[in-house]
Amino acid sequence: MAKESFEARLKQIGVVPIVTLPDVDVAVPMAEALSEGGVGCAEITLRTPDALRGLAAIRAACPDLLLGAGTVLDVAQVAEAIEAGADFVVAPGTNPEVVAACQERNVPILPGVTTPSEIDFARRLGLRALKFFPAEPLGGARTLRVLSGPFQDVSFVPTGSIVPELLPGYLAVPQVLACGGSWMVDPALLAARDFDRVRKLAAEARAVVDAARAPL
Q1: Cβ–Cβ < 8 Å for 40, 65
Q2: Do 45 and 17 touch, CB atoms closer than 8 A?
Q3: Which of 3, 31, 84, 152 could covalently link to 55 via disulfide, CB atoms 3.0 to 4.6 Å apart?
Q4: pLDDT tens per residue across span 5-31
Q5: What sign does the dihedral 104-110-112-113 (CA atoms) show?
Q6: How many Cα atoms sit within 13 Å of 94 on the Cβ side?
Q7: What DSSP state is assigned to residue 132?
Q8: Catalytic site positions
Q9: Could you give the CA distance from residue 138 to residue 161 in angstroms, rounded to a whole number?
Q10: Which one, of 34, 55, 43, 79, lies nearest residue 160 by Cα?
Q11: Closest alpha carbon to 41 in 20, 60, 21, 69
Q12: Pairing of strands 15-19, 179-181
């Protein structure tokens, strides 16, 4: 996927549900509920045994979903995620080997950054879309707005303890592409197979994004 089209899609969607799959059977109905709620995106974290199988199942059932693999820590996981059908990769930090593996395969990566030095390092690797993590413990939208000042050519996907009421503040930062969060796909909801609730929360998030980005 071209970098420009990836970033444009991410900005249009506005939120990235961060999913920790309890089992593979949850994957497709969860993804369908998100899409029906207006959020055509999901990041499947590679933290559970069924993560890659779930990612592949979603890819087969929901070909139009913008699908990411998260918590990618090494080059082997990059290869596994892409083989399973990931459109993009998300990492908690900026590992040059992981970045290079994604760049060699022309797959977008959102590496984690927290400081000006880390942002500068990621820029020197050729990256312009970065994950700001952990967002809330680091000062939230206010910190991100300050960090954005010196780095006018960088966009951010803040992630970490973001809840629905905080979305407007983050989306008001011009360089924010989208916000990552797990509230729409809380593990308890997925374990209970409460896909109606997932759909409702996705629709509410969609409304917040649309309101925040409506023309003045």
Answers
A1: yes
A2: no
A3: 84
A4: 999 999 999 999 999 999 999 999 999
A5: positive
A6: 22
A7: E
A8: 43, 131
A9: 10
A10: 43
A11: 69
A12: parallel
- The two three-digit tokens of residue 189, written as one number: 């909801």
Rounded to an integer, what is the distance from CA 56 to the centroid of its chain? Answer: 17
Residue 130 falls within a domain, yes or no? yes
Domain count, the chain: 1
* 13 falls within a domain: yes
Residue 215 within a domain: no
Query: What's the CATH number where 153 sits?
Result: 3.20.20.70
Contact 15, 35 (CB under 8 A): no
The reply to whether 104 falls in a domain is yes
What residue numbers bound the domain in which 12 lies?
Answer: 3-210
Ranges of H-type helices in 85-139: 96-104, 116-124
Residue with tokens 């995620």: 81
Neighbouring CB atoms inside 10 A of 143's CB total: 16
Nearest alpha carbon to residue 170 among 205, 203, 201, 215: 205
Type and span of the H or E element at 177? none
The torsion defined by the Cα of 50, 55, 60 and 64, in degrees rounded to 10, comes to 160
Structure-token pair, residue 64 = 């139009």
Q: What is the pTM of this model?
A: 0.96
Q: Which tokens sit at 82?
A: 């892409």
Q: Is 47 in a helix, a strand, or coil?
A: coil
Find the distance separating the first CA and the last CA of the chain, reported in whole Å: 31
State the amino acid at position 104 in one-letter form.
E
